[in-house]
C-alpha cells in the first residue's frame, strides 16, 4: 500500500511532506516531553526493523498468502514513536528496494502513520483509561479493531489520494469499481491483520504488558 | 526478500558526499514528477540514462530492483488507456484504447522509471551508514538518527531469527484449526520474536550508552566535507532541473 513516484502532482507530494513533517514534529515533541525520551528507542528500532522486513511475514490464506502491514501493531506498541519509526522504515524500503517512493514518502507516511496513531489512541484508551481492567474479550475486540481498522483506514487514504491525484480523470463508474476492488481486495488482509494483532497483543499482555502502549 | 548490499566498489560518481546526493536526488525527483510535455519527458529520460551510465551502477541492477515496486504503476499503465478519456483511438471488441488515458499512462511510466532509476543509482548504492550520516548532516533529529542506526543493526538478526522460528514451528507441527493453527500460532511466534528482539535491542542500546554514545564530550560523528567536484555536479544538476522546469512551463 505504497504510492510510487511519478503518479501524483507536485501539490500532492509536497502536501504529503508538509503533513508528515507536522505529524513528526508533533510526535517528537510528545516524545521529548517524556521523562526519558530515549527509553522507547530500543523498542521503536526493533519494531522499525520488523516493519521494514514485513514482507517476510507470510500468513497462509488459501489460495495464496498475505503480507502484514503492521501499522496497527506499531501504533499499539510504540505510541508516539510509531510515526518516526514508520518514516524510517519507509525511507529504507524506498532506498534499498525502491519500494514506495521518494517524492511520495510524505504521503506514504501519512497513509501508514495516521492509522498507527489512531491505533495508539484506541489502545491507550483501553490500557490507561477506565477500561484498563477490561475483560479479555473486550481487549481482544479492541485489538482486532486496532489491526483490521488500521488496514482499512490505510486503504481508504490510499484510494482517496490515488484517485484524487491521477493526472487523468476516470469516469465515475470506473472510480467506484476501483474503490470497491481495492476495499474488497484488502478485506482478507484486514481480517488477517486483526486476528494476528489479537494473538500478538494477547500474548504480550500476559507476558510483558509494559510492551504495549509506550505513549 | 533480498537486500542488495553495497560493495566496496559502490559507485561514487557523480557525487560522493551523501548529503549532496540526497539533495540532488530529491530535487531531480520532485522536478521529474512535474513533467508532462513530450520534450521535457524526452530530456528527463536522456538525463536519467546519462546519470545511470555515469554512476556505473549498471542497468541489470535496475531491472532486478524493478520487479516488486512496479506493481501499482503496472496496474495503472494497464488500466488507464482503456478506462480514461473520451478520444477513442481504436477498439478491440468491448475494449477501447483512449488517447488521454494512453498519454497519462506513458507519462506515469516514464516518470516512475526515471525517478526509480535515480533512487536506485544514487541512494541504493550508498552504504547504509553513509546514508544515515547524510541524513544526520541534513539535520534529521538525533532521535530519528539513533533509531535508524539501531534499526540497521537489527534487520539482519531479525531476519535470521524469524527464519529459524518459522522452521521450528513447521517442524513442531501447527495445532489444528484455523484460529489456533494459523493465526494464534503465527501471532504467538511473532510475539515471542518481538520479546526476544526487544531484549537484544535493549542490551545493544545500553552497551552503546555505556560506551559513551550521546554523552557530553563524546567523540563527534565523522564530519562530511563536500569536494569542489561534488558541488560542481550539484550545480549542473540544479541547472538541468531548472531547464526542465522552464521547458515544461513553456510547453
Task: Please describe the structure with a list of short key phrases separated by commas or semicolons.
A: mainly alpha; two-stranded antiparallel sheet; 2 strands; B: 251 residues; mainly alpha; two-stranded antiparallel ribbon; 70% helix; disordered N terminus
Written account of the structure:
By secondary structure, chain A is mainly alpha-helical. Chain A has 7 helices and 2 strands; from the N terminus they run ααββααααα. Chain A has helices spanning 10-32, 41-52, 71-78, 82-97, 105-128, 136-165, 172-207; strands at 58-61, 64-67. In chain A, strands 1-2 form a two-stranded antiparallel sheet. Chain A is globular, with a radius of gyration of 17 Å. Chain B is mainly alpha-helical and 251 residues long. Chain B contains 9 helices and 2 strands. Chain B has helices at 18-32, 38-55, 59-65, 71-83, 99-124, 128-137, 142-172, 178-210, 228-250, and strands at residues 88-92, 95-98. In chain B, strands 1-2 form a two-stranded antiparallel ribbon. The radius of gyration of chain B is 24 Å and the shape is flat. The chains are: A mainly alpha (215), B mainly alpha (251). At the A-B interface, helix 1, helix 2, helix 4 and helix 7 of A face helix 1, helix 4, helix 5, helix 7 and helix 8 of B.
Amino acid at each position: 500500500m505504497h504510492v510510487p513516484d511519478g503518479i501524483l502532482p507536485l501539490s500532492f507530494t509536497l502536501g504529503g511532506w508538509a503533513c508528515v513533517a507536522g505529524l513528526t514534529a508533533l510526535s517528537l515533541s510528545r516524545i521529548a516531553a517524556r521523562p526519558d525520551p530515549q527509553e522507547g528507542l530500543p523498542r521503536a528500532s526493533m519494531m522499525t526493523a520488523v516493519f521494514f522486513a514485513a514482507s517476510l511475514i507470510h500468513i497462509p490464506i488459501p489460495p495464496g498468502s498475505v503480507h502484514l502491514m503492521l501499522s496497527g501493531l506499531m501504533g499499539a506498541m510504540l505510541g508516539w514513536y510509531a510515526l518516526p519509526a514508520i518514516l524510517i522504515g519507509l525511507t529504507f524500503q524506498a532506498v534499498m528496494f525502491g519500494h514506495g517512493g521518494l517524492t511520495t514518502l510524505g504521503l506514504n507516511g501519512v497513509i501508514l502513520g495516521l492509522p498507527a496513531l489512531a491505533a495508539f489512541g484506541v489502545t491507550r484508551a483501553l490500557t490507561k483509561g477506565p477500561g484498563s481492567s477490561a475483560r479479555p474479550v473486550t481487549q481482544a475486540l479492541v485489538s482486532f479493531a486496532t489491526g483490521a481498522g488500521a488496514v482499512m483506514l490505510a486503504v481508504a487514504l490510499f484510494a482517496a489520494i490515488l484517485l484524487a491525484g491521477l493526472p487523468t480523470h476516470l469516469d465515475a463508474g470506473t472510480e467506484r469499481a476501483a474503490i470497491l476492488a481495492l476495499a474488497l481486495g484488502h478485506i482478507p488482509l484486514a481480517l488477517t491483520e486483526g486476528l494476528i494483532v489479537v494473538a500478538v497483543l494477547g500474548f504480550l499482555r500476559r507476558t510483558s504488558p509494559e510492551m504495549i502502549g509506550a505513549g | 526478500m533480498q537486500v542488495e548490499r553495497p560493495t566496496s566498489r559502490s559507485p561514487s560518481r557523480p557525487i560522493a558526499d551523501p548529503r549532496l546526493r540526497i539533495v540532488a536526488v530529491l530535487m531531480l525527483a520532485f522536478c521529474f514528477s512535474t513533467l508532462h510535455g513530450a520534450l521535457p519527458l524526452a530530456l528527463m529520460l536522456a538525463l536519467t540514462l546519462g546519470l545511470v551510465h555515469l554512476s556505473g551502477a549498471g542497468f541489470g541492477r535496475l531491472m532486478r530492483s524493478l520487479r516488486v515496486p512496479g506493481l501499482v504503476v503496472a496496474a495503472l499503465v494497464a488500466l488507464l488507456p482503456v478506462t480514461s478519456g473520451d478520444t477513442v483511438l481504436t477498439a478491440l471488441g468491448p475494449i477501447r484504447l483512449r488517447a488521454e488515458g494512453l498519454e497519462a499512462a506513458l507519462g506515469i511510466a516514464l516518470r516512475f522509471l526515471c525517478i526509480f532509476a535515480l533512487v536506485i543509482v544514487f541512494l541504493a548504492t550508498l552504504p547504509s551508514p553513509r546514508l544515515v550520516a547524510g541524513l544526520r548532516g541534513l539535520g534529521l533529529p538525533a532521535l530519528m538518527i539513533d533509531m535508524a542506526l539501531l534499526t540497521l543493526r537489527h534487520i539482519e538478526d531479525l531476519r535470521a531469527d524469524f527464519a529459524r522460528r518459522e522452521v521450528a514451528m513447521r517442524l513442531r507441527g501447527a495445532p489444528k484449526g484455523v484460529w489456533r493453527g494459523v493465526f494464534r500460532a503465527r501471532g504467538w511466534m511473532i510475539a515471542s520474536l518481538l520479546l526476544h528482539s526487544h531484549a537484544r535491542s535493549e542490551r545493544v542500546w545500553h552497551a552503546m550508552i555505556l560506551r559513551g554514545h550521546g554523552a557530553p564530550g563524546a567523540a563527534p560523528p565523522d564530519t562530511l566535507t563536500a569536494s569542489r567536484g561534488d558541488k560542481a555536479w550539484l550545480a549542473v544538476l540544479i541547472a538541468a532541473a531548472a531547464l526542465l522546469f522552464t521547458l515544461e512551463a513553456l510547453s
